[in-house]
């Protein structure tokens, strides 16, 4: 049976490489992107490289949770199951705090709320897979996160992009853990959820916005010291496809495909629950 995978942020960098590798393995790839023209170009490139004709673009702006909702609805209408959901899309954004039309801060929306909403909306479809998997992209940058301020969940005060990014990736890990517990509590035994760090990879995920002179300099010099997207994709592909992790859930894996303990300096069950509750409240208007 052909497996179906949805990969967000799949038209560039690690996401594109993950899509290519899974297409090579025979997956039906749902290739998410924001730009329909670019997605069509990447679709054709992957088909040409792999010979797999089952590469289908899905278009949505993940800064807009209504668009996330619409994408999920289309996927639910078009497919009878989803075997793997890879929440890959994310970014380190600029030094100016920005919000979407609903007033939601961009870093939190793209890195945390969009994947959280998408997971909620597509979970019934993933449950229809014999062995569903959810893979969330985090980052070793979560180790640089300070103490989260739940009174300022959307970084409205003293916004600093590195802090917002680090905390957002910490939240991804905490939500991954919480999802594993939620699945267990609901007696959903055929779905696993794990988080990965792809390593320092030469992509353009952080080059589009003005971050200030020092962060911009770091991002411009970083490719000299970074891995390739092909290497960066290996842990995500491993978590999506390997039989070795078929029963592992709620874990964090580093760029070498090794399970690793995340930074728990500020972790508590109450803090994890607070992140879940805040996210649930913010995405509630978009839940079916």
UniProtKB/TrEMBL annotation:
Key word Oxidoreductase present: yes
GO terms assigned for molecular function: oxidoreductase activity
InterPro entries linked: NAD(P)-bd_dom_sf, Sc_DH/Rdtase_CS, SDR_fam
Superkingdom, natural source: Bacteria
The keyword Iron appears for this protein: no
First and last residue of the signal peptide: none
Name of the featured protein: Ketoreductase
